[in-house]
């Protein structure tokens, strides 16, 4: 009977150890996700600012569709 109790205790300790490791890994991954989300939001803001700046800058040197001459036909 003693060996069964020892075996059960060993298995329980192993499970507790695995759970603790998994919790630590989940916490680490969560921190990475939060950091990446902040970086994504920052990059989105920068992209919007650049896009707005480009739109408000000098007119484009590329003619609009209405101003383009049709291509020659062969």
Automatic annotation (TrEMBL):
Biased composition (Acidic residues): 65-74
Gene name of the encoded protein: slyX
InterPro entries: SlyX
Source species taxonomy: Bacteria, Pseudomonadati, Pseudomonadota, Gammaproteobacteria, Enterobacterales
Sequence similarity: Belongs to the SlyX family.
Any matching Pfam family: SlyX
This protein's name: Protein SlyX
Region (Disordered): 52-74
